[in-house]
Amino acid sequence: MDNKNNHRIQPAPNSGFFNDLSARIKLILRLLADKRINPLLKILPIASVVYLIMPDLAPGPIDDAMIIWLGAYLFVELCPQEIVDEHLSYIHRSISGQSREKTTPDIKESDISDAEFWEEPK
């Protein structure tokens, strides 16, 4: 199967149900805030939350949890895979305890200048 079309989201290794759930929520929030995602696509998770608040919008026995799950699932599946992967790798790094500072280049001791600071009197 082609990896480009593989939208299955892999959970973080050694994570439990609640860690996976929080990672999924963080992913959806990060994708909603990402300007590269089509604004029309962002309607899916927002509409599912609106349905949770006002369930009388759709008649019939539609389970609220199913609507929320379907909206979140379709939103992530329809987002560009490279953007989803970018946000997922950030979330997995933060869950595993790696900080953003570890991804920055190392600063050598010789690159640091020692200086003194003083304020001029007013």
Task: Give the helices and strands, then pairings.
Elements lengths: L16 H17 L9 H11 L10 H15 L2 H15 L27
Low-confidence stretches: 1-7, 100-104
Overall geometric form: elongated
Largest β-sheet summary: none
Order of helices and strands: HHHH
Radius of gyration: 21 Å
Q: How many angstroms does the end-to-end distance come to?
A: 71 Å
What class do helices, strands and sheet pairing give?
mainly alpha
Q: Helical amount among residues, as a percent range?
A: 40-55%
Mean pLDDT: 76
Number of contiguous helices: 4
Q: What is the strand tally?
A: 0
Structure description:
The radius of gyration is 21 Å and the shape is elongated. The protein contains four helices and no strands. It has a domain at 38-97. 11% of the residues are buried. Helices cover 48% and strands 0% of the residues. It starts with 16 loop residues before the first helix and ends in a 27-residue tail after the last helix. By secondary structure, it is mainly alpha-helical.
Name some characteristics of this structure:
4 helices, 0% strand, elongated
Quick structural summary:
The chain is mostly helical. The protein has four helices and no strands.
